[in-house]
Design a protein that fits this description.
CATH class of the largest domain: Alpha Beta
Number of helices: 7
Number of strands: 20
CATH topology of the largest domain: D-amino Acid Aminotransferase, Chain A, domain 1
Distance between the termini: 33 Å
Radius of gyration: 22 Å
Shape: elongated
């Protein structure tokens, strides 16, 4: 492979904002695996956000990328999988598997797509110093004849369109809007873009905590919600605390501490088969490897309010943010029923040229 921009390359990143800013270039925020695609003739490599190789996990994309991409190019984009007209991040996670036979079986059962939103190199031209507006024009032209499973991400310069996308596209599994300065060069691994994500709140049961990797202070609080059968399901964690607050929490939570998990709703967390029917902390994960997943059980008697962006199935997609204790809430009242469901929106309407306007 001999390209003007060579792997590995870490993608340009975004910082969070509360509102969609005016006067920018706007795109939907895709909920998939960020990917830098390198193509030089028949050679194709796919790098992850951390510059690790993703190529072996998506064999079905290789021929499609050879067919629909220019012969020599480097693209920034997102690998996504759709089920039932919306993005399915769980299906992506299933791909990170050591067995090649399983990866190929899943490639046939739930094929992935690639959504391109930036162009880092084309032919002999490196475009890292080229402004975004020009890179976008060249990307659209380069992929003008592309077809499923390769797409050009819709984009607009109209902030009102971006605000409408922010509301509508969540129903297709997207999780917000990304704003970029039209004059922005491409800066790998720098947070120069802006992301605006949905934020909602939920009252959750505090059912345990994990220690911080630095020592005997709270690392994360384990959150639970009751399902329709009355079972407490593990829905995620809240983990962003200053070090002093982490120390205070250890003493604050001591009265709720259980000597063992016996009698706790998640008492069976170490039995792999128990995770098949209930969500519990410490489940097997290909991402955590040998990471210590042990946790301290607490009597599920205290409620906290957290902020979250969106759900992935029956859990929070990302780490939830602590807002306040809710001493006025009964833990039994913390159910899935309180969660807001976005209005469904067909993913095909996001990706087809006749769907959302590009806005230039």
């Amino acid at each position: 492979m001999d390209l003007p921009v060579m792997p590995p390359v870490k993608p340009m990143l975004a910082k969070t904002a509360a509102r969609i800013p005016d006067g920018m270039h706007y795109e939907a925020k895709w909920d998939g695996f960020r990917a830098i695609v390198f193509r030089d003739g028949d050679e194709v490599e796919i790098g992850s956000r951390t510059a690790k190789p993703l190529t072996r996990y998506f064999p079905e994309l290789l021929d499609a990328l050879r067919t629909h991409l220019p012969r020599r190019c480097v693209l920034d984009g997102e690998i996504v999988i759709a089920r039932g007209g919306r993005l399915d991040f769980d299906a992506l996670l299933e791909r990170i598997h050591p067995a090649d036979s399983r990866v190929r079986m899943l490639a046939e059962r739930t094929p992935a797509s690639f959504v391109a939103f930036d162009l880092l190199a084309l032919g002999d031209d490196a475009l890292l110093e080229t402004e975004l507006a020009t890179r976008r024009e060249r990307l659209v032209h380069a992929l003008r004849d592309a077809a499923e499973p390769v797409h050009t991400a819709p984009a607009t310069r109209d902030v009102d369109v971006a605000r409408r996308w922010f509301e509508q596209f969540e129903g297709a599994g997207l999780d917000g809007v990304v704003a970029k300065r039209p004059t922005l060069p491409y800066r790998p691994d720098e947070r120069l873009m802006v992301k605006v994500k949905h934020e909602r709140t939920a009252d959750c049961v505090l059912a345990g905590f994990r220690y911080h990797k630095s020592g005997p202070v709270v690392g994360s609080l384990l959150l639970g919600l009751y399902d329709s059968s009355g079972t407490l399901q593990h829905v995620g964690v809240s983990a962003s605390f200053p070090m002093r607050r982490r120390q205070e929490l250890v003493a604050e939570l001591e009265p709720l501490r259980m000597e063992s998990a016996a009698g706790h709703p998640w008492a069976e967390w170490q039995r792999e088969e128990a995770h098949a029917s209930s969500r519990m902390p410490g489940g097997p994960s290909r991402w955590t490897g040998t990471k210590d997943l042990s946790w301290v059980p607490l009597r599920p008697e205290r409620v906290l309010e957290v902020a979250y962006d969106h759900m992935q199935g029956d859990r929070f997609r990302h780490t939830a943010r602590f807002r306040r204790w809710r001493e006025d809430r009964d833990p039994a009242s913390c159910t899935y029923a309180q969660l807001e469901e976005p209005v469904n929106y067909d993913l095909a309407e996001v990706l087809t040229p006749s769907g959302p306007p590009s806005g230039g």
